[in-house]
Specification:
By secondary structure, the chain is an alpha/beta fold. The chain has 13 helices and 14 strands. Strands 6-5-7-1-8-11-4-12 form an eight-stranded mixed beta sheet, sandwiched between helices. The chain has a two-stranded antiparallel sheet with strand order 2-3. It has a two-stranded antiparallel sheet with strand order 9-10. About 10% of the residues have low confidence.
Length: about 425
């Protein structure tokens, strides 16, 4: 998948850099060296989660919150189409999602004040406004910590395809995702570095390397027992060896094993293939998967970029994911969350002849499904020009509390930093109860 640059000069890869070892995600060796099991809530509604980050900030007015009666300089050139749910309309360039609107809920009137890419991204990936003095953990890190690994040791708890914007924050890098570092291709076995034994590497050679790692680990015996960086070293050899040599793990990542009939709706695009992989991973027992579709920073040529590229890719991959999870009987037990870091200006700018839309955190959309969330509904509302929420509206904190609720996690639970400071999972925010009714 291509690296997308945003207007402030930051690439998607920049979002995931966080000091030594790249905090947001690790290679197999880094991940397994620092990974450890957590706890689970037996009453969890959803058993697994998928988070899809639309980096760059998609336009709400051209996707799921059209205003066909607004003045021309606001409404743009796209027309609404009726979904399979009475009264719910989408952009004409999202026909496949319109046909499965009964499977997910739309949140309109979502609003915040952080109009910079990095700050907005950090906000929606953790559900708490970012602070310069403390890095909050993303959803995948919390799920990794809260989820008891009843699944075999040969599967990672959290996978990012190809990498992601969620960092483990003060929980420590042992809760970082395993980055695939590449995107799969439809019909082709997917090779994740360190999982597939490529380049002639044999199991016997892996055993030799495991013995070497045991020797290396012994050099850290005198290290600080409270060090988050070294926490989990004791399990590294066993779990890394288990994943590398496990047929279960290799099969989980191998989308070529899906039937042609199931695969076809995902199309040929890298995002569709990533959605296919996400469905296969959660079916195999992976607890949390994050995906990224970038390129939404449409300051110019907004309508061409959306209609010819971004919306068809989102439409095909996401609709196939919702339908595929439902077909496998996994949608109810998989909490899905789709969001960008903000919306885009309701009024079209004049940077090019076609025009574009700029950063706009005061109004945006989010999508959610699974985990008890009722599909086929719209919660919240924006005003007649989509400039602000119509009424109180919602914040990313509320979305985070809701998502954790769908996953059976109490968002008010307190964790402690390595200095002993108590921090709630979501410091502010309330569960959006309408989504569950």
């Amino acid at each position: 998948m291509a690296t997308h640059m945003t207007c402030d000069g930051a690439s998607r890869r920049d979002f995931i850099k966080a000091g030594v070892l790249g905090g947001a995600g690790l290679t197999l060796a880094g991940y397994m060296q620092l990974a450890a099991a957590g706890e689970v809530k037996s009453n969890a509604t959803a058993k697994r989660g998928i988070f899809i980050n639309l980096t760059g900030g998609p336009s709400h007015m051209d996707t799921f919150d059209l205003k066909p009666k607004a003045p021309k300089e606001y409404r743009g050139t796209f027309n609404p189409i009726q979904s399979n749910v009475d009264g719910i309309e989408f952009s004409e360039h999202l026909p496949k999602l319109a046909l499965c609107a009964d499977k997910f809920a739309i949140i309109r009137g979502m609003s915040h004040t952080l109009g910079a890419h990095r700050l907005g991204t950090d906000y929606v990936n953790a559900g708490t406004k970012p602070l310069p003095s403390l890095e909050f953990p993303g959803y995948g890190a919390v799920v990794s910590k809260e989820t008891e690994q009843v699944n075999p040791i040969d599967l990672p708890a959290f996978v990012a395809v190809p990498n992601g914007n969620q960092r483990p924050g003060f929980l420590g890098v042992k809760y970082a995702p395993l980055n695939t570092a590449a995107t799969p291709r439809i019909g082709t076995p997917f090779s994740v570095r360190g999982i597939a034994l490529s380049g002639g590497l044999t199991i016997k050679e892996v055993e030799k390397r495991q013995n070497l790692l045991r020797e290396l680990d012994s050099t850290f015996e005198s290290a600080d027992a409270n060090s988050q960086l070294l926490d989990g070293l004791d399990r590294f050899s066993q779990q890394a060896h288990s994943i590398i040599t496990s047929k279960r793990s290799r099969d989980a990542f191998d989308i070529s094993k899906e039937s042609p009939a199931f695969t076809k709706p995902f199309g040929e695009d890298a995002f569709g293939a990533s959605c296919l992989l996400a469905s296969r991973l959660v079916e195999s027992g992976v607890r949390f998967v994050s995906l990224t579709l970038g390129g939404w920073d449409t300051h110019s040529d907004n309508f061409t970029k959306l209609s010819t590229n971004l919306l068809p890719r989102l439409d095909t991959g996401l609709a196939a994911l919702f339908n595929g999870l439902a077909e496998k009987g996994l949608l109810d037990s998989t909490a899905v969350f789709v969001t960008g870091e903000f919306g885009r200006t309701p009024k079209i700018n004049s940077r090019t002849a076609e025009g574009g839309r700029d950063h706009y955190p005061r109004a945006m959309f989010m999508l959610m499904a699974g985990g008890g969330i009722k599909g086929g509904q719209v919660v919240g509302k924006s005003d007649d020009k989509a400039t602000l929420p119509d009424g109180k509206g919602f914040k990313p904190d509320d979305a985070a509390a809701t998502y954790y609720h769908a996953l059976g996690i109490d968002h008010t639970k307190e964790y402690h930093t390595n200095t002993g400071r108590p921090i709630m999972i979501v410091r502010e925010g309330q569960v959006i109860k309408e989504l569950f009714s």
